[in-house]
Design brief:
Radius of gyration: 22 Å
Distance between the termini: 30 Å
Strand order of the largest sheet: 1-2
Number of helices: 6
Helix content: 55-70%
Order of helices and strands: HHHHHEEH
Strand content: under 5%
Length: 192
């Protein structure tokens, strides 16, 4: 099964590939930082009866960025949690296609609403400058993890829109009365 980026026009596929590479880098680096940090915490706590100062504050920022970049990856891959039973019940390819279009459209609408709320969260945070909310010990502004939330939802919306675009571009499969798929012919092939 081809990847989403392979179904996109080259003008869109290039920036999507760059975004995927950046997201993958963020996810991998964040995972490594978390693993190493927790390793140090265990060694410091149980090996030296010490504590790593305020590690939970900077790990919070890393966790938010990693979680929302991974959520965007899940939207891109269509690997997020899915409790859809209709996909197993509906056998007609045209109805499955229509169901997928409706689901993607609803997903785009919901994601746009959440982007709006995430923007309100960012705007509210910015409006308090220079008295931003910060973490207690390291004084990390709450704006930093919230930007990760906002960017994650934007990427989720972009990938949902691209999935919807590909669904609409390919169109519903043509079927015969016995529900066998008929290969779609291009307009050039039909004129021959």
């Amino acid at each position: 099964m081809p990847e989403l980026v392979d179904k996109l026009p080259n003008a869109i596929a290039g920036p999507v590939r760059v975004a995927l590479a950046i997201k993958n880098f963020i996810i991998v680096v964040a995972s490594l930082i978390m693993a190493v940090t927790f390793g140090f915490v265990v060694v410091a706590r149980y090996g030296f009866s010490a504590d790593l100062f305020a590690y939970e504050e900077w790990l919070m920022v890393i966790c938010f960025w990693m979680f929302f970049m991974a959520s965007a990856m899940g939207t891109y891959d269509k690997s997020h949690v899915n409790a859809d039973l209709l996909g197993f019940v509906i056998k007609d390819p045209r109805k499955l296609w229509l169901r997928n279009v409706i689901i993607e459209f609803i997903e785009v609408l919901v994601t746009f609403a959440i982007i709006y709320w995430a923007w309100l969260m960012i705007a509210d945070e910015i409006s308090y400058y220079p008295n931003w909310q910060t973490t207690i010990a390291l004084q990390i502004p709450f704006l930093v993890p919230r930007i990760g939330i906002f960017l994650g939802f934007i990427l989720m919306a972009v990938y949902s829109i691209l999935h919807l675009y590909v669904l609409l571009k390919t169109g519903a499969p043509d079927t015969r009365e016995d529900n066998q798929l008929i290969p779609r012919q291009s307009a050039r092939g039909a004129n021959k």
